[in-house]
Amino acid sequence: MSGMDKRDYPEPGAESIARPASAGGAGATCAGGSAAQGSHAYDLDNCIKCTICLAHCPVSRVTDKFAGPKQNGPDLERFRLLEPAAVHPSIVYCTGCRTCEVVCPSGVPVAAMNSRAKAQYVARYGAPLRDRLLATPDVAGRLATLAPGLINRLGRSNWLRAAGEKLAGVSAALPLPRYADRSFPVLYRMWRRERQGAGVNSRSSHGVTGGEKVLYYPGCYVNYNQPQIGLAVLDVLVASGVEARVEEFPCCGLPAISAGLYDAARHKGEETLRLLKPYLEEGYRVVTTCPSCLFTLSQKYGELLGLDLAGRPEQITDIFTYLLELKEQGRFSLNPAPLPLRLAYHQPCHQRAMGCGSPSLDVLALIPELQVVDLAAGCCGLAGTYGFKREKYPVSRAIGENVRQAMEQLALSEAVTECGMCALQIGHLTGARVYHPVELLSRAFAQAGQKG
Amino acid sequence: MNSKKTDIMVIGLGLAGMVAAARAAELGKKVVLVGKGAGSLTLSSGGIDLWGYSLEQPEKPALSPRHEISRLVERNKDHPYAKAADVLEDSLAFFQAVCRSAGLPYLSNGLGNWLVPTALGTLRPTCLVPESMAVPDLQQVARILLVGFAELKDFYPAVLAVNLQKCGCLPSGCRLDIADVRMSGREMNAVTLAGRLEQLGVLEEVVAQIRPHLTPGTLVLVPPVLGRARHRQVRENLAALLGCPAYEVAGLPPALPGLRLSDALLTHLKRNGVTVLSGSTVHSVRLDEQRRRCLAVQLAGPGGRLEVQAAAYVLASGSFLGGGLKAGPGLVQETIFGLPVQFDPDGWACEEFLDRRGHAFNSFGLRVNENLQPVDGEGRVCLENVLAAGAILGGSNWPVEKCGNGVALTSGYKAGQLAAGGV
Ligand SMILES: Cc1cc2nc3c(=O)[nH]c(=O)nc-3n(C[C@H](O)[C@H](O)[C@H](O)COP(=O)(O)OP(=O)(O)OC[C@H]3O[C@@H](n4cnc5c(N)ncnc54)[C@H](O)[C@@H]3O)c2cc1C
Ligand code: SF4
Ligand code: SF4
Ligand code: SF4
User: Fold this and answer.
1) Given this model, what pLDDT does residue A151 score?
2) Which of these, B35, B37, B36, B40, lies nearest to B21 by C-alpha position?
3) Is A335 helix (H, G, I), strand (E, B) or coil?
4) Which residues of B touch A374 (CB under 8 A)?
5) How far is the C-alpha of A221 from the C-alpha of A230, rounded, in Å?
6) Which residues of A touch B271 (CB under 8 A)?
């Protein structure tokens, strides 16, 4: 095979072309069990050293501290065949945005190589306490929701932030995400009680409507910071005749993966799967609102952590793909009301990395009078916890400059994006109000409901 | 599997696919554009080559590429230009309009070619260049200052100087000098350096080192690193600080001008409603029972699978580098539809690496009719609603003919237009 396939996809043009005898490489390394071991030994030979990955890497664009995707990835991977510790220390500057992998014309899993290299580096040299703390947003979130008012006030205290920067290396320049007064699981229970009290569709508390079982997977950001997004999801689904179930999950593990802490990530992943598997086995559809969570569950678990999700591929999907399916089946029960707004759309890197574009744009297009302009300005630079690290904040900010300028050029003051952390960064860089697409949808539905 | 319906599906994120998508979108069609990776535009010098050398004297740069092409299509009916040159002027005008509105104007040199100096000190004939490469006629200059950066790998002004002097294109008495700029000391690639130069403070420090070498009337040549997204400001600031413009030479990959063009086109497409699916591979296709039409293509990316159903398909998947073609012992295949490929099993390459005739494998590819529909050996249309464009077309040897982006642009434009008109 030409080595063109990122993973074990069927051969292109399978109908008419027999797989040439020279096939090998990529397919073999990524299939099944061997993916768990995560060897990219053969994939590295697919690299033709074209530098396309380097040319597109947002970090390489703004700093000379990073050796770049090609050098850190396939170039050093050759040495890692013999010496696993052959990792350039600059690897910690990789944000894990996956741009390199999206643009590589030869199907080299550059970002996965880099992620694994970072994990090797961290396993050998350790990670600062700060990185370990930032890697567990669920623990922080659970603690914070005990006294969110206090935590939020402390988070905005200048001297505390200055101390945090000095002592722990957490940048004081970037506002910390605010914690919600009540976590999503708490609000969800209230929401359900209200509906049951009102005698609405009692059967639906099992998440079963019209034979379809749906589970909503919120992710940490919705759970602890922006629970109104989760409530909007429930409302939008109800408006479409679907009542979803909600389960309390730990963090998916992405922040730990990003910090190179694979053991911690695997631990989160195993816990998540223990909770998720019964649903998958029962045939539930699992819908998400965080592209990074979705990407982690559907891709990184298998590729990086050797965890097996064992669902049908379409069983876990983002809410918008699911809504578009409902629409295909004629199950949108309300016509959204017009929303006369003009907004910028920012595509999160992990949304792009999934290779299916932005289904949210197709859903937002159903709202009359809503104008959504694709910023097309690339990575926002925050990359989850990356931008909070003192030494990375300037890198993060410089990357986001394209987003800031695009907003300015297009004269837009409000934005919409699927990822909570991107929203935080866009707000920080531009002062814009940033929505999750599902919030707009729920607003349009609510207004239509009032009229109807 | 999730599915999506659209008017036109374009396969390939290279120049051909992007132009096809842009043209179809301009004609009001709903377009989905997919690519498993970036196209070779991001490797190219950024110039749009139409035709580089004289047909009779292949060592002589073509003075009028249009004239050469009109004669070429008379004698070589298999060349992609023979199928698409009817829209040549329209496609160039369209491209220039898109680039202008994207803030990256592409300039023509009258009806002729530009002769752009390369990093190796040769002169490259090319038809359209971004403003940053629109270098004035070298015959008219009295002194050239070559700016080098100590930290930049792969760019050696001394080599450029020696070869430029040798090429016989400078007026006698023309002086060549070198200004070596030193920055942070750490090694940098072109992309990082370009990002650095977007900071005004950095640019000022650079200029402070160049200025002592400057005399009135000097032509300043720099490596292609004058910014990425903010290239316009960088160039304007540099000209203001120097008191004269500086021009980028054609460089080795990663070269910023090609990247800027690729960025600008992609942004144009996204802002004009084209759905772009990057990082997704077309792995199989669904045909109707008679195998006359394509009903859908199936994509796979890390996020799962997707079926796209379209009325027409533009296949712009490139050649070997892009992944549209693949080679095995004694065979060449088209990777998506399994379309017949025109190739010579006995003549893949010349013995000399830099043979003027060019290596035959570069001209392997699909045969198409006037409507850009791929045809078999007997000239029969393979799939009615599939059109091909760009480097996947056989019959041209772009590295020696210097027509890579020209063919991609012209055939991409035509394919987008025909697909939008219904096939
Ligand atoms: C190093 C280099 C320098 C060059 N310099 C110049 C220059 O200065 N001037 C000039 O005019 N020309 C130059 N050329 C030639 C020119 O760049 C190309 O001929 C032209 O850009 C080809 O464009 P294309 O769109 O047809 O193909 P490509 O740019 O190769 O694009 C093919 C696209 O198809 C995608 N694809 C392939 N298979 C699949 C699949 N199964 N599923 C999804 N997507 C798929 C690829 O990922 C890619 O996005 C250069 C070429 C190279 C390699
Ligand atoms: S883009 Fe892919 S093939 Fe090119 S240098 Fe990077 S990893 Fe190698
Ligand atoms: S994942 Fe992103 S930051 Fe890391 S090397 Fe790839 S492109 Fe660069
Ligand atoms: S990826 Fe999702 S679950 Fe994981 S930390 Fe981010 S929001 Fe939380």
Assistant:
1) 72
2) B35
3) coil
4) 270-271
5) 10
6) 373-374, 376
Q: Is residue B249 classed exposed, middle or buried when 0-12, 13-18 and 19+ CB atoms within 10 A define those classes?
A: buried
Whether A206 has a pLDDT exceeding 50, the answer reads: no
Distance in Å, alpha carbon of B215 to nearest chain A alpha carbon: 33
Closest CA to B255 of B391, B124, B158, B113: B124
For residue A421, what are the CA distances in angstroms to A199, A350, B14, B342? 37, 12, 31, 51
In this structure, of A157-161, B242-246, B366-370, the range with the lowest mean pLDDT score is A157-161
Predicted confidence (pLDDT) at residue B104 exceeds the cutoff of 50:
yes
- CA A59/CA B21 separation, integer angstroms: 29
Atom of ligand 3 nearest to the CA of A68: 5
Local structure of A15: helix, strand or coil: coil
DSSP A398-428: HHHHHHHHHHHHTT--EEE-S-HHHHHHHHH
Asked if residue A175 has pLDDT above 60, the reply is yes
User: Which is nearest to B129 in space by CA: B93, B149, B94, B105?
Assistant: B105
Chain A residues in contact with B275 by the CB 8 A cut-off are 357, 361-362
**Chain B closest-CA separation from residue A298 CA (Å):** 7
C-alpha A100 to ligand 2 mean position (Å): 8
- Whether the CB-CB separation of A85 and A117 falls below 8 Å is answered with no
What DSSP string describes B249-279?
Answer: PB-PSS-HHHHHHHHHHHHHHHHTT-EEEET
- Give the pLDDT confidence of A311-331 residue by residue, as tens digits: 777 899 999 999 998 888 887
Asked if residue B370 lies in contact with residue B83, where contact means CB atoms within 8 angstroms, the answer is: yes
Q: Which of B196, B301, B329 sits opposite A355 (nearest CB)?
A: B301
CB–CB of A309/A282 below 8 Å?
Answer: no
Q: What is the pLDDT of residue A13?
A: 36
Residue pLDDT, tens place only, B352-387: 666 666 767 778 899 999 999 999 989 999 999 999
Residues of A in contact with B189 (CB under 8 A): 51, 54, 60, 68
Alpha carbon of A328: minimum distance to chain B alpha carbons (Å): 10
Kindly state the percentage of chain B with pLDDT values over 70.
Answer: 96
Mean pLDDT along residues A383-412: 91
Pairing label, strands A212-217, B31-35: unpaired
**Position A228, amino acid:** Q
Query: Does B303 sit within 8 Å of A355, measured CB to CB?
Result: yes
Alpha helices in A226-303 (DSSP H): 227-239, 254-258, 262-281, 291-295
Rounded to 5 degrees, φ, ψ at A423 are -60, -40
For residues B360 and B346, give the distance between their C-alpha atoms in angstroms, rounded to a whole number. 10
Peptide linkage before B254 cis (omega within 30 of 0): yes
Measured in angstroms, how far is the CA atom of residue A17 from the centroid of ligand 1?
A: 23
Nearest neighbour of A357 by CB, restricted to B1, B267, B277: B277
Q: What is the DSSP string of B284-337?
A: EEEE-TTS-SEEEEEEEETTEEEEEEEEEEEE---STTTTSEEEETTEEEETTT
Question: Would the CB atoms of A5 and B283 count as touching at under 8 Å?
Answer: yes
Average pLDDT rounded to a whole number, residues A190-212: 64
- CB-ligand 3 contact for A304 (6 Å cutoff): no
Q: Is A376 in contact with B196 (Cβ distance < 8 A)?
A: no
| pLDDT digits 0-9 by tens, A89-110 | 899 999 999 999 999 999 999 9
